[in-house]
Here is the input.
Amino acid sequence: MPAFALLGAAALVWAAGACAPAEIRTDDRTDGRALAQIAARGELLWGADEQGGEPYAYEDPARGGALSGFEVDLADALARSLGVRARMVQNDWPTLIPSLERGTFDVALNGIEVTPARAARVSFTRPYYIFGERLVARRGDDRVRDLRSLRNLRVGTLANTQAWDLLRETGAVPVPYEGVDEQFVDLEHGRTDAVLLDDIIVDRYLGRHPTLTAVADVAQGRYAIALRPADAELRAALDRSLDEMITSGAWRRTLARWGLDGEREAALAAAGSANPPALIAAGGAARLPLTRPQLLLFADGALVTLLISLAAMALAAPFGLALALVRLESPRLAPLATIYVEIVRGTPVLLQLYLLYYGLAGILPLGPWTAAVVGLGLNYAAYEAEIYRAAIASVPREQWEAALAIGAPRRAAFRQIILPQALRLALPGVTNDFISLLKDSSLVSVLTVVELTKRMTITAVDNRGWIVPGALCAALYFALGYPFTRLARRLERRLGTHAES
Here is the structure.
């Protein structure tokens, strides 16, 4: 039934495109109530991601876990200028702009770089920090010199950033990460060839990795506060506050306290607006259609998802069966198998992936694909073990007795009589687990594997819209899983008929 699955997938994508709401151009929006709403609420809600760490916004152990960072100080100062208090709203960094657009918070303030793609969909205040894009390599690696030398090399960075765009333009292979220290861990263990990140991040984290060195600053960029384009009154108020802080020198004193002041910041007073009006008028907030190369990348992401899922299941099924047999047939080893099953089922698979890939990097530096397959396989083996154990226990005891009564050895009786029946009973549960594994494979993006869901998020941010990329992603998952469901049902019918006859 693969044709039916693909037909259903196409229908889902068509429906999503047909139901997508009409776009509102930036210059057509007239809602200017944000400032009044902030005053009435008594809070300025600003979106940030604590995973970005020091010195942006992080929980400081020295202050009992209180929120600290130079952007925390900035948010507090801006809120005071508006006569309210500041409250941070935790949000994953890659989706800060979409969350801002949907109204989750008033402003996005977390190392948001001013890029043409972002300026086409949000409004920016004047910049509050000028940073450098810093290139990092392993000591003694002469291949990494500048941007041009990165062609065809794997370079770690954050997705949908200025560094990400630079790497794509230069022909490098950008490797996306969620956090800011993982790039250095992978580079240190040879999983990537270089790292390109903002100098603030490099200064804070490079010291933890003595085998790495900063090569050069290859570009400059600006941080500014992102707002919805309609909130022009709020933007003007924030710009006035920033102007006063910068011209009075108060902001540079704050930067100095965090060790961030330098020659670049002297240019802040002359930096002016971070939001070219012509760029906003031309770009608006219109969503872009999926291009042919993007569709091919979606197909590539689907293939990655399928291959990882099949390989992980190929590990989980036999290992799960072995665990089930140990629990049933080996009183001495059964407690160890039980402990494994309960611990693995009782902890999140995401945590297990982190520990396997990053936690064991100093002992066992697995590659991303290997760690993804092994991590998912070992996790699902625990669930498979319970399915097989229940299926074996469900075979009537009379089957054992009959086999032993005719003189069959216990192992032969199990292999030839009990196990075939148990596998038939386990088939629905195993199929269900494989469908779940297909979906859980989306978690391996934390290991820098660009599978289907990660491809969707990258495309959605690039195209300024989530409905069509999301619907295509869902349709592809359905198209991947449905044929296996149909195959399992056909096998169930065949095995069931054979058993009855």
